[in-house]
Amino acid sequence: MEIVIQIATFLLLFLLVVAAAYLASRALAGGAGRVGGGRLLRVVEALPVGRDRLLVLVEVGDRYLLVGSAPGGVSLVQVLEGDAARELAGRLRAGPAGTLSPDAFRRLLDRWLRRGGPGEGTP
Fold first, then answer.
1. Could you report the per-residue pLDDT of 8-36, keeping only the tens digit for each?
2. What GO terms describe the biological role, i.e. biological process, of this protein (predicted)?
């Protein structure tokens, strides 16, 4: 009977340690990797395009910045403003939970890049 109590105590302590480790990792992460934003910037969509490479759509006021993120840094790909930004904003509002599906995001990106390339619309 004593061995059963010891095993039960061990399992309970083990579960408490696992739960504490889980809660500590969530608290220490502090939202790392979460797509979101602050008061002035909002990450609208992030699309993995390769190993350690992302295309990220960031809303800044009435503009949308498409930036590429890679281990070597972050670079501006395209600035969407005017009609392109209004069209994107309308599509985002119409989509489920305010987001584009990855396929819709790819189609929009392809169309905007065909319009003028990375340099068009930059300040």
1. 898 988 888 888 887 777 766 654 444 45
2. bacterial-type flagellum organization
SS3 56: strand
Q: Which residues lie across from 41 on neighbouring strands?
A: 60
Quick count: other Cβ atoms within 10 Å of Cβ 59? 20
Phi, psi of 96, rounded to the nearest 5 degrees: -65, 125
Query: Token pair for residue 44?
Result: 């609208």
pTM over 0.70: no
Q: Are 70 and 81 in contact (CB under 8 A)?
A: no
What letter would DSSP give residue 73? Answer: E
Render pLDDT for 72-98 as a digit per residue (tens, 0 to 9).
888 888 888 877 777 777 776 666 554
d(CA 77, CA 104): 18
Q: What is the pLDDT of residue 94?
A: 66
Strand partners, 53: 50
